[in-house]
């Protein structure tokens, strides 16, 4: 699939089956159902709100989904609004066409406009830095990240000085993802 014009819109309640299919396809037969179940749990979890769930489409066909959920900082040094990007999925035949990058850019722009100061992700260190994320040592993940994956814990500052203000904090996340197994591999 070549690069194509995309529309990005907030996901709706009636998109649940579409989101599940995207995550199952994007993450494969082993990991996909686990991630799809996590997405459903995060969409139902009141501790994940406010959340931002975006769906990318081309000609009415769903190509990708991204979810940002509420995160907290403890101690909370300056009341910084934080979000956790988890997960991002792109249909396999649309991977490498800019769908994921567009979802990230649109999501970050909407979060910036809504007043979020920091966005965190535990993701591929070869992918997310292309979109402005940097390894984060200043704020601890909710659970220890194995040393071999330390560069996978990343943050992006949406408000200048937010990361410096949050230094020494630990990120808190929604109850649905607050399980050690989501953070260890």
From TrEMBL:
Q: Which CDD domains match?
A: NAT_SF
Molecular function GO labels: acyltransferase activity, transferring groups other than amino-acyl groups
Q: What is the lineage of its organism?
A: Bacteria, Pseudomonadati, Pseudomonadota, Alphaproteobacteria, Rhodobacterales
Query: Which keywords does this Swiss-Prot/TrEMBL entry list?
Result: Transferase
The N-acetyltransferase domain, residue ranges: 6-159
Protein name stated in the entry: N-acetyltransferase
Q: Which InterPro entries match?
A: Acyl_CoA_acyltransferase, GNAT_dom
